[in-house]
Specification:
Strand content: 15-25%
Number of helices: 5
Shape: globular
Number of strands: 5
Strand order of the largest sheet: 3-2-1-5-4
Length: 142
């Protein structure tokens, strides 16, 4: 990674496969003219902390997975709140809010909402990673 940290916020339906998550993330990166090597971290909601596909994505890509609580996500202003996400979770956003919260106060959204195969990805550049609530993969790749 060169430059500012790049965080991918991810929202998904229960039981979403690793293949679907990887495909959506690769597609989002391509749309933002970025590569997998540019990613610094993944971020999502604590309600997704037991999702096998999401955990496997973090492990397989060698990235820390930051899981944020509902209060943190609700407090984060987002450009594209989702009525569907609010109905299901009570949150205005998972992907964009999580990425912005981890990216820090000077975050710059590159792709606030990319939907592919039931997966929502938000790509955000930050100046630094904020302390995470939980990290499922303690060792990020070098």
């Amino acid at each position: 990674m060169v430059g500012r940290p790049l965080i991918a916020g991810i929202g998904c339906r229960r039981g979403t496969s690793l293949a679907a998550l990887s495909s959506a993330l690769n597609d989002a990166l391509a749309n933002a003219d970025r590569t997998r090597a540019d990613l610094t971290a993944l971020a999502s909601w604590t309600g997704k902390g037991d999702e096998p596909g999401l955990l496997a994505l973090a492990e397989g890509w060698g990235l820390p997975l930051h899981l944020l609580d509902s209060d943190t996500l609700t407090a984060q202003p987002v450009s594209q709140p989702s009525a569907a996400v609010t109905t299901l979770t009570g949150l205005p956003s998972v992907a964009e809010a999580a990425a912005l919260a981890i990216a820090g106060p000077n975050a710059r959204p590159l792709l606030p909402r990319h939907v592919a195969g039931g997966v929502v990805v938000a790509l955000v550049e930050g100046d630094k990673l904020m302390p995470e609530q939980h990290n499922s993969t303690p060792e990020a790749r070098p």
